[in-house]
Amino acid sequence: MTDARRDDICGRDGGRPEPEVERHRTRRFFNRVAPAFHVIDRRLLPEYRRVLETVDLAPELSVLDLATGTGTLARAFAERGHRVAGVDFAERLLRRARRRLPGAEMRLMDLADLPQIPDNAYDVVAMAYLLHGVPPPMRRFALCQARRVARRKVLVFDYAGRGPWHVRFIEWIEGPHYPSFVAHPLADLAAEADLAVEREEPTSSYSAGWLLCPRDEPDSA
User: Fold this and answer.
1) pTM for this structure?
2) Strand bridging mode 84-88 / 63-66
């Protein structure tokens, strides 16, 4: 994507991330709940493995996992032979990711700092259960940055609809952004970042994985 095209879609800074005060609150929340992630990881890892087997990305493709957490999605990629890197802003989660994947580059980084990563630095940019937890401007920012950094594909795992009561309760504790996320199709959000849905794979009755690809560049005048 040309610089002019990117500026037209996402703005010169790729969109506006949420205020620092909210990022600080979210970072503190995830550091506090880090001990509970082993339960979440056990449920999600089989879903990630199944979707990766289905989409069957070539193992030589490099992967950047945004908001990698404890590295569960990164682990699923690494098991298939991908060279994986991850970023997260929660120190306690990232420590566990480094223990699980000692050969992977795991960087402590706020999503607001993604513009520091060069264009087309990785073949694939992935993110799991990130977008529902941030406000709409940050969703657009994250996808625009993923579109910029990825040479080939963007892979998103998240909610595809309103979940059962326990999911809604957990997300209420996490923050206020889940309802606005599930109210709109992921394809609409992706289109705002010049991405199109190439494939959608349900992971449950209320969640899915989406393989996204860059939309065609407009013809030159």
Assistant:
1) 0.87
2) parallel
